[in-house]
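Saturday, quiet lab. Running sequence design on the structure tokens for the scaffold JK sent over.
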């Protein structure tokens, strides 16, 4: 599975899913034949994950979230295959609805105004486009069409390496306002190549 499936995924997915395999799945099911991994055993595994805590590198521990449990079981289903897992009727913990915290326009203005140098341009680009952090880091000068006030998103950066965007729809053209266009032009100082 690692060689045939995991290896073709994006690096961030490989890291996360590989971690789920190593930390949880191999410990629980690694010595069992795949034919012995059944619905009952997986449901018991889910019940054992609920009170489990993950210890972070800084020494703090936190309970494994329902979303992480869903993700771990998703990896297990991927390993086992649809033919086996489709027959299972697993009870997974409910993922609570929670609203993502975001900066208000006024808070974002304060961040941009307080920043200097390239950070001002980076934060203004976040605020003006809604791009992901890795997408902004992956911008090349050739991705900008400042005369048309457009930014072409073609790639991202993950751990210092260029990668394709997160999803197929991630390849996109974003309209920007003239103020951001002027800020980007001033930042480039006439450069026509290289990274933003």
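Result came back. Writing it out in full:
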């Amino acid at each position: 599975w690692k060689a045939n499936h995991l290896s073709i995924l994006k690096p961030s997915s490989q890291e996360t899913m590989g971690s789920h395999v190593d930390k949880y799945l191999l410990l629980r099911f690694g010595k069992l034949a795949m034919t012995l991994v059944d619905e009952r055993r997986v449901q018991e595994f889910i019940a054992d994950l609920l009170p489990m805590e993950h210890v972070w590198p800084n020494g703090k521990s936190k309970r494994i979230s329902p979303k992480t449990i869903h993700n771990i079981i998703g990896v297990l289903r991927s390993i086992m295959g649809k033919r086996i897992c489709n027959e299972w009727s697993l009870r997974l913990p409910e993922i609570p609805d929670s609203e993502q915290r975001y900066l208000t326009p006024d808070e974002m203005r304060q961040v941009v105004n307080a920043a200097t140098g390239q950070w001002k341009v980076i934060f203004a680009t976040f605020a003006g486009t809604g791009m992901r952090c890795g997408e902004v880091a992956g911008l090349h000068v050739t991705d900008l069409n400042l005369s048309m006030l457009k930014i072409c998103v073609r790639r991202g950066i993950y751990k210092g390496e260029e990668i394709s965007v997160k999803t197929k729809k991630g390849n996109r053209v974003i309209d920007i306002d003239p103020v951001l266009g002027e800020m980007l032009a001033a930042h480039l100082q006439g450069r026509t190549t290289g990274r933003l």
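Notes for JK: The first strand starts at residue 53 and ends at 55. The chain has a mean pLDDT of 92. Ask whether to fix the surface positions before the next round.
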